[in-house]
């Protein structure tokens, strides 16, 4: 292709998204079908994807690490619940209190700060001296991950073409599943090579160096030009937009920005704005189905090794020999890793379909599929031996595939799309925090309810919440497929 001229210099001022969505043309006037991604846009994407990877890594690795923690600290069912819920409670607080700071201080600042906090608590966790400190460090690590929920979404969605927003945001989000699988595999490798009760510490420590590389990389990304425009910093916005869209051959050669949004008052930026008549529907759609989805996803995800160990007849006891404990933990980790593969396949399907089918249909279908998987897993309790194992594996595999095809992926995507720019971070942060209330509840109560109610009853309840999620998604639906963030925010 020859030098590709554009009419940027001749056209009136436009919004940041207009420039990002602009496509080059051939000399004969033929337009290119999509806007090619620049080096900076891909850099932003990879560094945001890394944050989701670390979330999946440390949260789901806790399920493998927990039997060893239990042996070292002599944990009871209540303490198991605290460990499972600690990082999720941190995510709740981080998303609620820090997520909105991206609207105030900028996307890039919080993009860096959250990873620094994560590394500090990750390092402390690997040398934790007691059970109480372990819970505290898991919580602190979760705070950083909670900030990442809205921030990572915003730095991607405000920097990429509308036509690719769905699949690229979900592609980054899919690294949560890659992290979950990696965390399970890391746990398995540590168990296989270190027959020591303190092996769980090494599981977390292996993430420190990769996380340091990510935080360094985040210093070398652009600030969101859309955010700068909302805050009236026009010259900075034009400079950052030019850096974002730097390519060879260069287009557009000249960037002159204007805002499509009216100035916003302090009242417009107050948390109460999420519940105004204009934004209430978006808030309900972003938050409530995500809450219902997290009830199942984190309960099943964290405690898959525990459930599998029980299903396979190798549930650990306090009197169990350490060698047997590690062997049983390895066996459960192997099964969990096989099931976690379906998370990756599910989010892969979501990446392919989100910009074609739409967010709402996939979320509804996914919720119903999750209910079906949980019902199959519940039926396993009525069988023994081979049929029991087959049903529980089939149920959990279907659940993992459908949750990442539908609600686990689409709720995250929608939460960063349905709010206007000036409260997008706050809205996405609130939705993530509200969702993590469900995750904390299920992570804390799951080991207790497994004993009190039994596996079957608990799975039936979670199947019911999945059906409710499908109903509420339809009732409050806002489809964002193919719509620019400018259009959604007006």
From TrEMBL:
Record-annotated Major facilitator superfamily (MFS) profile domain positions: 44-481
Matching entries from PROSITE patterns are given as: MFS
- Which residue windows are transmembrane per the record? 44-69, 81-102, 109-127, 133-156, 168-190, 202-221, 295-316, 336-353, 365-383, 389-407, 428-451, 457-476
Per the record, the domain of life is Bacteria
For this UniProt entry, what is the primary localization, expressed as one broad class?
membrane
> Sorted alphabetically, which InterPro entries does this protein's record hold?
MFS_dom, MFS_sugar_transport-like, MFS_trans_sf
Q: Where in the cell is it found?
A: Membrane
Instruction: Please verify whether the record's keywords include Transmembrane.
Output: yes
What's the protein name?
MFS family permease
Organism of origin is Xanthobacter agilis
């Amino acid at each position: 292709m020859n030098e590709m001229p554009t009419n940027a210099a001749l056209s009136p001022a436009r919004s940041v998204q207009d420039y990002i969505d602009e496509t080059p043309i051939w000399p004969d006037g033929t337009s290119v079908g999509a806007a090619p991604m620049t080096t900076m846009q891909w850099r932003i994407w990879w560094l945001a994807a890394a944050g989701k990877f670390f979330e999946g890594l440390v949260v789901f690795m806790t399920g493998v690490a927990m039997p060893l923690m239990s042996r070292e600290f002599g944990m009871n069912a209540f303490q198991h619940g605290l460990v499972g819920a600690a990082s999720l409670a941190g995510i709740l607080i981080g998303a609620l209190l820090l997520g909105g700071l991206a609207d105030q201080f900028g996307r890039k600042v919080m993009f860096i700060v959250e990873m620094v906090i994560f590394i500090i608590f990750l390092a402390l966790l690997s040398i934790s001296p007691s059970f109480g400190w372990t819970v505290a460090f898991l919580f602190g690590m979760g705070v950083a991950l909670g900030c990442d929920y809205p921030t990572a979404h915003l730095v991607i969605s405000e920097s990429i073409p509308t036509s690719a927003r769905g699949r690229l945001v979900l592609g980054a989000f899919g690294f949560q599943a890659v992290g979950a699988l990696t965390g399970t595999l890391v746990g398995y490798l540590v168990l296989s090579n270190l027959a020591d009760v303190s092996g769980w510490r090494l599981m977390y420590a292996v993430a420190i160096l990769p996380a340091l590389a990510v935080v360094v990389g985040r210093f070398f990304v652009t600030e969101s030009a859309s955010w700068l425009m909302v805050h009236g910093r026009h010259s900075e916005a034009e400079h950052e937009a030019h850096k974002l869209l730097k390519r060879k051959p260069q287009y557009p050669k000249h960037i002159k920005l204007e805002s499509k949004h009216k100035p916003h008052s302090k009242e417009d930026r107050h948390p109460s704005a999420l519940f105004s008549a204009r934004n209430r529907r978006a808030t309900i759609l972003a938050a409530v189905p995500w809450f219902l989805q997290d009830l199942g996803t984190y309960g099943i995800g964290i405690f898959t090794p525990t459930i599998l160990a029980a299903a396979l007849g190798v549930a650990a006891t306090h009197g169990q020999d350490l060698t047997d404990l590690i062997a049983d933990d390895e066996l459960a980790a192997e099964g969990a890793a096989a099931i976690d593969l379906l998370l990756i396949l599910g989010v892969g399907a979501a990446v392919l379909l989100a910009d074609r089918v739409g967010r709402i249909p996939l979320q509804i279908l996914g919720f119903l599929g999750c209910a079906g998987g949980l019902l199959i897993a519940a039926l396993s309790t009525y069988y023994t031996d081979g049929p029991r194992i087959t049903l529980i594996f089939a149920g959990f595999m279907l659940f993992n595939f459908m949750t990442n095809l539908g609600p686990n992926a689409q709720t995250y995507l929608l939460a960063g799309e349905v709010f206007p720019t000036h409260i997008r971070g706050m809205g996405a942060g609130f939705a993530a925090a509200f969702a993590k209330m469900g995750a904390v509840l299920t992570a804390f109560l799951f080991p207790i309810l497994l004993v009190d109610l039994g596996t079957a009853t608990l799975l039936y309840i979670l199947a019911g919440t999945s059906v409710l999620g499908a109903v509420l998604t339809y009732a409050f639906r806002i489809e964002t497929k193919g719509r620019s963030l400018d259009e959604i925010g007006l």
